[in-house]
Amino acid sequence: MASRTGDLVSPFQPAHQLDLDALLRYASVNVSDFPRSPSKFTISQFGHGQSNPTFLMEVGSGAAVKRYVLRKKPAGKLLESAHAVDREFQVASL
């Protein structure tokens, strides 16, 4: 079992690419305490969570680095047995 988060992530899979500029703009406006002009912004993909791709965002401002987890719906038609990301958001935000 991996003991560090870095051991669990890898570069993006081609099917799961994100518009990083749009993501950064959105997070800067909508995520509490998200740095407005980060000096570091990296994103990698967890090797698990493939029914709903899961990403690690590392955002730096000066010496401080914050980590965020992002999940998204997979491309294409969602299988009935797959987790509904919108439902997960509702549960997580309660």
Automatic annotation (TrEMBL):
This is Aminoglycoside phosphotransferase domain-containing protein.
